[in-house]
Amino acid sequence: MSDAVLSTAGLTRSFSQGGETIEVLRGVDFSIGAGEIVALLGPSGSGKSTLLQAVGLLEGGFGGSIRIGGVEVAQQDAAARTTTRRDQLGFVYQFHHLLPDFTALENVVLPQLVHGAERADADARANELLTTLGLGHRLTHKPSQLSGGEQQRVAVARALANRPALILADEPTGNLDEGTADVVLAELLRLVRQEGSAALIATHNERIAAKMDRVVRLHDGHLQ
């Protein structure tokens, strides 16, 4: 495997509920190499989203080690976590979470401006990504004017806009019908490979998982 973009060691997470402690992650050890696309497979409620929240630095309360690009990030303060997320990670969720008052192009431009890009460069990058995803004729449309599949493709472009080392996707086609889901997933995988990013994609669907480079299964808090 290439140098690890993401690696965890002894990753744990537990919750208190009704006076009981529920262990969701029980010492997760795994790594993802540069350019590798890995399916995180497990039924609903198995902890896939919890694991993505951990490695995405979206929530605290985790034990163990998380290294992104060789840097230990598990104990970073809030400001450093924000910088790591901005510079190293891209996110695609089941629901697109696009900004409703902005066009498709603007939704992909904005994260680049936050990252410090010049407006002309951000426009060019957004145009390139959206055109590659077949949305070159929809650049000025707002989310409400786009189909579900088109909205999710804009979300894919947004996730890749800042050239992240790692894409984290949580059931990225779970809100789409099967035919549209297949198209969006194929575009996601193609573009991730084209960009040279690594990806961890959570799904409960064996058929979708089979399209990845490798499958890891979350069961009883451990990866198999």
Automatic annotation (TrEMBL):
The keyword Cell wall biogenesis/degradation is assigned to this record: no
Entry keyword set: ATP-binding, Cell inner membrane, Cell membrane, Membrane, Nucleotide-binding, Transport
Gene Ontology cellular component list: membrane protein complex; plasma membrane
Organism superkingdom: Bacteria
SMART domains listed in its UniProt record: AAA (SM00382)
UniProt-recorded Gene Ontology molecular function terms: ATP binding; ATP hydrolysis activity; transmembrane transporter activity
InterPro entries found in the cross-reference section: AAA+_ATPase (IPR003593), ABC_transporter-like_ATP-bd (IPR003439), ABC_transporter-like_CS (IPR017871), ABC_transpr_LolD-like (IPR015854), MacB-like_ATP-bd (IPR017911), P-loop_NTPase (IPR027417)
Gene Ontology biological process terms in this record: lipoprotein localization to outer membrane; protein localization to outer membrane
Pfam family, one: ABC_tran
Domain ABC transporter: 6-224
Family: Belongs to the ABC transporter superfamily. Macrolide exporter (TC 3.A.1.122) family.
Protein name: ABC transporter ATP-binding protein
